[in-house]
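From the shared-data thread, chain only:
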Amino acid sequence: MEPAPLPVRRRSAVVVILWVVFALAAAPLLPGLFLRLKGGGFEDPAMPAWQVLREIEDRFHAGSADVIALVTTLDDGAFDDVFVTTALVTMVADLERDNRVRGVLSPLDGLDLLSSRDKKAGAVVITLYGEDHDKMKLLPELRMRLESACAGACAVDISGIQPVNLAVSTVVAEDLARAELLALPFTLLVLLLVFRGLRAALIPVAVAGLAGFLSLATLGALTRVVDVSIFAVNITSLLALGLAIDSSLFLVTRFREEAQAPAPDPSVAGGVEGAVRRTMKTTGRAVAFSGVVVAVSLAGLFVFPQALITSIGLAGLITTTLTLALALTLTPAVLRLWGWHMVPARAEPFEPTSTWLYRTSKVVMRFPVLVAVVTGGALVTMAGPFARFEGSIPDWRQLPEGNTVRRACAALDERFLPNLMTPHEMVVTVDGDALSADNLQKLARFSDALAAVPGVSRVVSPLTLAQGVSATTVATRLADPAFRDSPDLKRALNAFAQRHRFRFAIYSDYGASDPRAVQQAAALQALRTEGITEVTVGGVPAVLLALKQRVAERTPWMIAVVFVVMFVVLGFAFRSVIVPLKAMLLNVLSLTASFGAIVWVFQEGRGADLFHFTPTGVSDVVLPVLLFALCFGLSMDYEVLLLARVREEVLRRPDDTREAVARGLAATGRSIGSAALLFCIVVGAFATSRLLSMKALGVGLALAVALDATIVRGVLAPAGLVLLGRWNWWPDVPPLPPSSPPAPPAPSTSTVAPGPPSAP
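Structure, as tokens:
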């Protein structure tokens, strides 16, 4: 095959070199990426549940349980042993001297809830100053100091918010490296089987590797400007690899097809350059539109205020833009440089009618109504379990079984007051000074009402610190200024009472993500007694309740934004009203089917043995939102490629929709199937994550893409296309070819001679 002209190859080489230079320049942005990522990311400053946490820090100068050190005795000894007590005193004194530590609570403060039920362990609650990444950097030093204070008298295990965040960050980094090491070799192997040539197989892998590297480097720059969720890294890498492989695969496949076919017009350039131009004019245009569709789908995440969701949307947009730029510039550049090496000299032109996809589509289109009803019904049935979806915020239980932080958190839950890390936090308002005698009595009655709420195991405040003494009695004593003059009591009062505001910590029998704890938060929010003018509830259950409300409120807006913009983009691409409507309907079917499967497998635990996880009975509350944004755009990628090719065939034979659809499906089916298989390999590698939420997201993505590439594009799409016929393209319906002119009358076979012409 004739190579591209030398000037064209030189320009192509410059494009390749520029991308390599760009990658080298971006490399310094990667170091320290994982330490700058944010755990959690569910914050919504406009919601009262989050305002409570901010007020506790700003007004009461307290904070959350950043670190909980689980101090246990050795050799099954008693926790009040003199050596253990000495170690505890040393530990607390060392922490209180550190200006990075906001506050320390321990069994030395007389808090019985910080002593284990068997009296052989204690919990030291440490609150730190600074942002999450500053706190996580301090953890190794903090652990070393705590272990040093024990000096052989006790053992220390670390739990709490920041150790969980650091453990998640570490697992994500390790899982990401393993996923990429798994995905790329398997991807190259499949591409070798698809293309039967090393050069053709290397192009998608090279584009994918470069896209992943540049996307993570850009994410590293992004973390220096805004908060970025730890989970954005996996999404970025997954999107970069998946989209780059898909788009490059489509372009290389179409190039080889064009290179084997005779030029449609003698005036059009031939050889490599002509094949590349025709490829970019057809499949390149489809890839560009599909990239826009993916970006639009991810942009829908910006309707949510939570940093977790918006940072994934922003990272996804950056990744999609970079990947699309690479696919549309680097891939054709490499094709111009290598193209003549990638097409067999005696290759036969592609003939769609000889493929099994062509024959299968013909069978499907003979019974379009039956096919649509059966397959559509099956997908709707698969979606059924989604009605049982129960959203939650991921906690320490998502960590792998052998993780030391998970073990410490589990021990804390088993040996101490349940949910020690995640109480309901409540701030109430009274008229006047909260520590006046009258208000203290009102607060005592309110404390008793809190304790009477079903499922509440303990209410903690200065009114309840004396075990066995009623809150009303304590309130009477606290009203005496002389009684509350002791430094320790003053410190406790300052952490719970400030002017007209008073706070309570309320411990529940139910886990923080348990639906019953969420209902309990709503009940606490509605509770009132005489003299209490305002009640605001925070803590994980209240945050989850607020998050559920926000997701329910904003999700319709996200869907509307995605649908409207996608309708405009696809309508412009195909000059049709029907095509985008039908494409979105088909995407919804495959997407909701994967939603149902995720609930059935992960929430209800039916895949626990297969996927190696411990079921919790709940799912990540933002999982459907992320699945929608990612799957909707990625599935549309295949739809755009299929419809673009069908449209080409329709323009060639506008009077035969069945033939056009069969040829379009046969021409793209192998590419779509290969791309889906490769994407499932990539996603499957990420689904090996040891974090339950990432495992569920990976399996959900893989299932949605697999359903879309097989059932939807291979069966439902052709059935729908043939049912609507030429009206798929309304209002730009291709005109039918002109009918043949009537045949002239046959010459007469009569032997009678014709008469003379009539006189004028």
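The radius of gyration is 33 Å.
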